[in-house]
Amino acid sequence: DARVTQTPRHKVTEMGQEVTMRCQPILGHNTVFWYRQTMMQGLELLAYFRNRAPLDDSGMPKDRFSAEMPDATLATLKIQPSEPRDSAVYFCASGSGQGMADTQYFGPGTRLTVL
Amino acid sequence: GDSVTQMEGPVTLSEEAFLTINCTYTATGYPSLFWYVQYPGEGLQLLLKATKADDKGSNKGFEATYRKETTSFHLEKGSVQVSDSAVYFCALRGYTGNQFYFGTGTSLTVIP
User: Fold this and answer.
1) What is d(CA B106, CA A77) in angstroms, rounded to the nearest whole number?
2) For A103, which of B41, B46, B105 is closest by C-beta distance?
3) A93 and B32: CB-CB below 8 Å?
């Protein structure tokens, strides 16, 4: 049963520290999404990749967040420096790129707490 | 811009009750519509989807019909179970394929 994996599952860090979250999309999927979920804002799309190229990262604070896909099996989301308001659950999802009908398969999330 | 609005929760139902969670959307063109479910401590999972007007998505006893005339995609289930307790998200994918919008989620608790 193919799944999206994310590491770490939980991260507690102090304000100002760098945080890197990793995602392994389902093998063969060519679209990758990063979302942030908070009680106040709900689910927000941060970035969207197709064939490893960023198509939309307008939802991501550019000054501190960066998202990359070094290869087809790894997507990373980095926050530097982290702030308490970044505390949230970060989800990665992948899709097979079937256009409008494309289903997103979500990973279990990384729960980030910035003190 | 495109958006999705779903009914606020939380919703509490007794087992075997009928469930409706309302979802309406605003979009240019013909979006695809989805319902996702999130169980505690897990990521979202696709529950059902519909890609054109009058399509009905169904899965695990849940149904939703894509109604373009009322711009709605309401989720229904005839008889809920305790195991259906979760948060349900309505979602829209814009006609270009590059825009994604999720509703705020509706928490459902089913009591025995």
Assistant:
1) 28
2) B46
3) no
Which tens digit of pLDDT belongs to each residue from A94-105? 998 766 567 889
Chain B within 8 Å of A43 (Cβ-Cβ)? yes
Three-point CA angle B53, B54, B56, nearest 5°: 115
Integer Cα distance of A37 and A22 in angstroms = 16
Any CB–CB contact under 8 A between A108 and chain B? yes
* DSSP for residue B42: S
Tens digit of pLDDT for each residue in A38-89? 988 888 889 989 999 998 888 888 899 999 999 999 999 999 999 999 999 9
Over residues B12-36, the mean pLDDT reads 94
- A67 bridge partner residues: A77
Query: What pLDDT does A102 receive?
Result: 76
Residue B93 contacts A, CB cutoff 8 Å: yes
Q: Give the angle B57-B59-B62 at the CA atoms, nearest 5°.
A: 80
